[in-house]
Amino acid sequence: MRIDVSSYIPGSSPVHACDARVKVVLLAAYSAMLFFVRTWTGLGLAALAFVAVAAASGIAWRRFFGLLAPVYAVAALAVAFNGFSLDVWQAVGGASDAPGGLGDVSAGVLADVPPVVLIGSFGLVPAGFARGCFFAARIVLLVTASLVVTYTTTSTQLTDALCAFMRPLRRLRVPVDDAAMVFSLALRFIPVTAEELARVRDAQWARGAAFSEGGLRARLGAWQTVFVPLFVGLFRRADALAVAMDARCYGTSDVPRTSLARRRLTAGDVCVLVAGLAACAALAAWL
Description:
Keywords: Membrane, Transmembrane, Transmembrane helix. The protein is mainly α and 287 residues long. It has helices at 14-17, 20-36, 40-57, 62-65, 69-83, 88-97, 126-152, 155-166, 176-206, 216-247, 267-286; strands at 84-85, 116-119, 122-124. A three-stranded antiparallel β-sheet has the order 1-3-2. Helix 2 (20-36) packs antiparallel against helix 7.
């Protein structure tokens, strides 16, 4: 059993060289913009922006779209629940009378197409199908945009960016350094947990555990033999980490932590930030 966990991919592209704080801010702006865009033109421009940035990163396209099976399932549900209705005529009337909002998106060329009755009152609503495709594309763009940041930014850079964003809270005596350390440890334990899960699962499978045989109850019982030692092992790792941090006197001083090489925003980073925020604001406001 092999689990491929999304992580940093080394590279020398302009996206890799961009400051982590800029990438996090632009990701937040891009995500917000996707929820404000209501036309297919705006969504197409947002997709074009993602394609341009992903191409500039130099990362293979399969890394963005090859591991999104759960996302595709959610997107398919969005299309199905919006495109089909148990009462097609009532669904059309309700959609036309619905107040405007973040969920009121354009149906494109299918807006005036009448519904197709399949069985009784159940049928396909073309306008709802188009809106479902809109929502599905929005979900996929949200996830893939976040992958651009995680693939081109190390966990240390993300932690430093979080610490920089929270630095003003030090005046309120918020433990910024501790919060950044917790965030860094959480990121580090994701691949560790995946590796431990694969190792324990392989060990139990070698001992005859039937993970794909029998009914649901039997399969859940087989996975129980995996999760119990997995959590025991994780608690052991956490205890060893706590002992190591305590032995190094972590947290015993009130002096703020320093950084060996604190990165400063360059003129190029500022230009990218301003241009990206302006583009996201323009798409959200006009499209």
